[in-house]
Amino acid sequence: MGKVIIDGNSLTINDVVNVARKGYIVELSEDAILRVKKARELVDKFVENEKVVYGITTGFGKFSEMVISKEETRQLQKNLIMSHSCGVGKPLSEEVVRAVMLLRANALAKGNSGIRLSTLQTLIDMLNKGVHPIIPEKGSLGASGDLAPLSHMVLVLLGEGEAIYRGERLSGRDAMNKAGIQTVELTSKEGLALINGTQIMTAIGALAVYDAKQLMKIADISAALTIEALNGIIDAFDERVHKVRPHLGQIRTASNIRRLCENSQNITRQGEIRVQDAYTLRCIPQIHGASKDAIKYVEEKISIEINSATDNPLIFSDDEFVVSGGNFHGQPIALAMDFLGIALSEIANSSERRIERLVNPQLSGLPAFLAEKGGLNSGFMIAQYTAASLVSENKVLAHPASVDSIPSSANQEDHVSMGTIAARKARDILFNVQNVLAIEMIAASQAIDFNGSEKLGKGTRAAYNKIRENIAHVDKDRILYKDINKSFELISSGDILREVESYIGELE
Questions:
Q1: Phi-psi region of 130 (alpha: psi -120 to 50; beta: other; left: phi over 0)
Q2: Contact, 195 vs 145, CB < 8 A?
Q3: What DSSP element (H or E) covers 47?
Q4: If exposure means fewest CB atoms within 10 Å of the residue's CB, which of 16, 116, 180, 194 is most exposed?
Q5: d(CA 109, CA 29)
Q6: How buried is residue 453: exposed, middle or buried, by Cβ count under 10 Å (0-12/13-18/19+)?
Q7: Delimiting residues of CATH 1.10.275.10 domain(s) in the chain
Q8: Which CATH architecture describes the domain 3-197?
């Protein structure tokens, strides 16, 4: 079993994926342990001296003017978690919940939150032993952190709420007992330290951006298959074209297409069949490349956020200084997630237009809807409908969440990010794009069969062969959703990407 050591500063997106999906064990670094202890000592000192500090000896939000006695600080923290557990909707997936727990633990490990080491260790024990709180996906404004959903995570630490343990949905207390983990009684600052942060939106975002990077390579493979099927003109991908407009994503996409189609006898040169291809063939480097560059920006923002202190107030123990700031505000992630959704939507837009080109005999020169005995058979007619439906849904989902704001807490919190909504939308768009590409890949493979697969390039041949190992040629109408699901699995599992890269090396 792999291991990830967290220190609050060096976590990577790959680490998040390994913990969330592969069950890697999590441990605190020695430096993190020392920082956590030092910050906690300062919190205890403030409580003992009854120093007025937001969230430690005061109420929250609009109640920040209400001073709480040291005798009531424990009840204050418990009340915070119970009152803030207001999430609704379907539970987040277990992989997202695992990512949330990891990111919250890593933020606390920075030593700016004032949590007790024992409480932090309980959260890590839950992660390592597979106690996964039920966290409803809706209810966060993404500004005072992801307060409502993170409170559901903390409920289980207290023996409240619900959790999944070894595939069974249990009460929080039963899950903790079965895992052999002692529940926690929160003390001063701890409730706020656990829920004031952007870990829900960032966890969803980290997994989504990881998948988006892989999906962009799949998009190049899928597009290359269509180029092969339609005798596309390779000149548009000439390196010289892209060096004079040197956007990195564009250059890399053109290179990928050239490598995928290397040695192909299907591709043509300008003027051999036609002078120009339509934009969704000719402009693949420009379209895909722009999305790759956008995803790179999102990746940078997520990488910063997963190693950030997003608590309030923040504790700087070396200076014995506590300050109430705004690092909980999700705007950096909200904008990035909206950008990710828009960038991915464009990939499905262009893919669907290529599917239409494949199934339309007036554009492809191939049998109508790629059907043998058309009329008796409908072929891929309705598969294109499905792609069009997903693309239209994406256009709705791509409307930015971050442009909206509703004041909360009696207008104390008068601008919110809606970052968690943006992250969930980006994740939904990603799923739709995976399905559109799944349809393009099987449609392109069907089209290639009419011209002969023996003419394929080195990379496209590997992709085509992998598809045909799992999905047969459609010689007469059959239930197509099963084929689409198999194609989707080849994409989401990474199987087709690994197969292609084993032949031509890593795509960019």
A1: left
A2: yes
A3: helix 30-48
A4: 180
A5: 8
A6: middle
A7: 3-197
A8: Orthogonal Bundle (1.10)
The answer to whether 299 touches 209, Cβ cutoff 8 Å, is yes
Q: What is the pLDDT of residue 164?
A: 98
Q: What is the pLDDT of residue 73?
A: 74
Q: What is the DSSP-derived secondary structure letter of residue 374? A: B
Which residue in the list 54, 165, 210, 464 is annotated as catalytic? 54
pLDDT, tens digit, 9 for 90 and up, residues 368-392: 999 999 999 999 999 999 999 999 9
481 carries an active-site annotation: no
Comparing C-alpha atoms, which of 96, 295, 302, 95 is closest to residue 212? 295
- For residue 25, give the amino acid letter: I
Strand partners of residue 132:
164
Cis peptide leading into residue 313 (ω within 30°)? yes
State residue 44's pLDDT score. 86
Amino acid at 58: T
3-class DSSP state of 56:
coil
CA 455 – CA 265 distance, rounded (Å): 5
**Residue numbers of the chain with a pLDDT score lower than 70:** 54-55, 57-71
Looking at the chain, how many residues does it have? Answer: 508
pTM of the full predicted structure?
0.96
What per-residue confidence (pLDDT) applies to 397? 98
Give the CATH H-level superfamily of domain 205-504: Fumarase/aspartase (Central domain) (1.20.200.10)
